[in-house]
Amino acid sequence: MLPGWGRNGRFVRAGTMGVSRILGTRTAWTTVGDGEFFCPGCGGDRNYQRLTGRRRFTCLGVPVMPRGETGPVVECAACGHHYSADVLDHPTTTRFSAMLRDAVHTVALAVLAAGGTCARTSLETAAGAVRSAGFDDCTEDQLAALVEALAADTGRIFGEPCGPGLSIELHEALDPLAPHLAPAGREAILLQGARIALADGPYTPAEREALTTVGAALTICADDVTRLLTAARTPS
């Protein structure tokens, strides 16, 4: 192209205009999967396509030379943005709600089983926490029956320290959830368990051990677990 004056009034040298129109790259995308994910751009659950691509140099818009592969990427069906594949590690809103509900339910059962007596005040506090987490129909009697069934199934005696089986259940429920909770959210779950334990009196050694296991599964450091359990005993 000959030199001359551009539209913005600046002098343009030869060869600096139109090159991008002649040479470029193009990516041909191939869909290799789909599903639902939490889109960080939209801020909610959306459908997605998982894509891999092959890049090529183009001349006058015509692909002429391979330039290698790219991806995989995740494309939101709503906003069209591309994200790295690790965005799929974040649970959808629906999945996160289910994980949180199951976590609160498991913690409530563990603390009740550790308490030994399943006093009515503890059952009422536990049922309220579980209902707030999403089990709308949960009742005190249902929780009491589940605790009894748990003890019968494991041969465990009420009030015993948190055994390997119960510890595994707590970790299975809490380990996948912890990375997706803010510190305040992790502390809230532990404090819910503490309030259940304190509903019928001071912590028993077994309740404290169960709550310590809860704190560890939620990646709360030991000092913060002690601080939170102490603070829960102080009337607000």
TrEMBL record:
Domain Co-chaperone DjlA N-terminal: start-end pairs: 103-227
A family per Pfam: TerB
Listed Gene3D superfamilies: TerB-like (1.10.3680.10)
Protein name per the record: TerB family tellurite resistance protein
Organism: Streptomyces tauricus
Taxon lineage: Bacteria, Bacillati, Actinomycetota, Actinomycetes, Kitasatosporales
